[in-house]
Amino acid sequence: MINRNNVIAQCFNLLIIALVLVACGAPQPTATSIPPTDTPAPTVNTPIPPTETLVPPTETLVPLPPGWSQKADMPTARWSDSSLDTNVIDGKIYVIGGAGGGTKVEMYDPATDTWTQKADMPTKRYHLSTAVVDGKIYAIGGNTKHTSMITNEVTSLPTVEVYDPATGTWSARADAPLRIDSSSASVVDGKIYVFGNWVANKATTMVQMYDPATDTWSDKADMPSKRGKLSTNVVNGKIYAVGGYGGYRVTAFYSVDEYDPVTDTWTIKADMPTYRVAATVVVDGRIYLFGGVRDREEGGYPSVYQYDLATDTWTRLDDMPFARMGHGAAVVDGKVYLIGGTETPHPWQPFLQEVWEFDPAAGG
After folding, report:
1. How far is CA 97 from CA 14, 85, 101, in A?
2. Cβ–Cβ < 8 Å for 146, 101
């Protein structure tokens, strides 16, 4: 017969011994981590770990790297959330709109390194897209407030206006079938293709085609991914969509997609080495990307990348002598002109008037 009192007493003694061991610092068993039983599904456009460092604002490299020189300042300091709108006609660069610019149109002549004020755009707007057809500049969509991305106000526009440098006048054309904001436009065979849109702080896959000859709009095949504030370039009759944002407070894209207007189809190309919203241009059949930003809380970067279509590869070139974002880029006689923008994170002040010339044949 088991004596219950003895059992209770023995259990009590064992408890006392355990407490004494703990108090004396006896080694405790350590927890072993259990491996996860599943792997998170990959997300679209997973960010690549950054390999670059920001250049402190106002810091410019001295002496300047090969191929770089500073030119006469633009009269008006201005910036855009993607890239400042610049257009080339007869070897002269026209800068239109932008935060700080509003309705102002200014023309830069690289041959004389001088600026000339032109007729104001009728509608004040930011984040518009522009394109040149038959020597005229088409200004498409945009937003009446450059802060709408933060306030989420519906202030985007369907407005289309055309500027004729020969007469120095603006005229209205048919509105787009929807409000267009933070898009990018490129021209193939006299038709303007508009890529991406910004609706309620989210990007879309929208592609619209505008025919200036008939003043009409039509839908085209959607982009493979939703994005706005991207850049587009034309090479050999095909349009390349580079970078951009997918939405507010979303890290930029690093994807590159090729659009064929003849077949109305898309082909996915090699990703950029880093995600970016930046100004791009074409020189000798290669796409150059200058500076830009990865997300809205950062300042500009000094990096320069080159995309070779023949090999579908990206190469990082020598850095710019400064950091920059929200600037415009244009090519005249094989030289690249970077105009305006800013260096600093949100609220992106001050806007800049600086103009820099880069000769790819001498630098890189």
Report:
1. 83, 7, 5
2. no
Q: Where are the domains of the chain?
A: 76-358
Catalogue the long-range contacts made by 197-200 (C-beta closer than 8 Å, 24 or more residues apart): 197/228, 198/127, 198/143, 198/149, 198/156, 198/228, 198/229, 199/156, 200/152, 200/154
List the one residue out of 99, 175, 100, 160 whose CA is nearest residue 130. Answer: 160
Rounded Cα gap, residues 325 and 301, in angstroms? 7
pTM tops 0.85, yes or no = no
Asked whether the beta carbons of 274 and 289 are under 8 A apart, the reply is no
Looking only at the bridges linking them, the beta strands covering 85-89 and 184-188 are: unpaired
**Beta strand 198-199 pairing with 335-339:** unpaired
**What are 343-355's pLDDT values in tens digits?**
877 777 799 999 9
d(CA 244, CA 235): 19
State the Cα–Cα distance between residues 263 and 267, nearest whole angstrom: 11
Question: Quick check: helix, strand or coil at residue 70?
Answer: strand
Whether the CB-CB separation of 130 and 185 falls below 8 Å is answered with yes
CATH 2.60.120.10 fits 76-358, yes or no: no
Report the alpha-carbon distance of residue 309 to residue 286 in Å, rounded: 7
Residues of the chain with pLDDT under 50: 1-9, 11-12, 14-50, 55-58, 151
Q: Is the separation of the CB atoms in 326 and 320 below 8 Å?
A: no
Distance CA 343, CA 352 (A): 8
Tokens of 32: 């072993």
User: For tokens 């095909």, what's the residue?
Assistant: 238
CB 127 within 8 Å of CB 80 = yes
Annotate 237-291 with DSSP letters as a single string. TEEEEE--BSBTT-PPP--EEEEETTTTEEEE-PPPSS--EEEEEEETTEEEEEE
Nearest partner of 223 among 198, 259, 277, 193, judged by Cα: 259
**Residue 250, pLDDT score:** 63
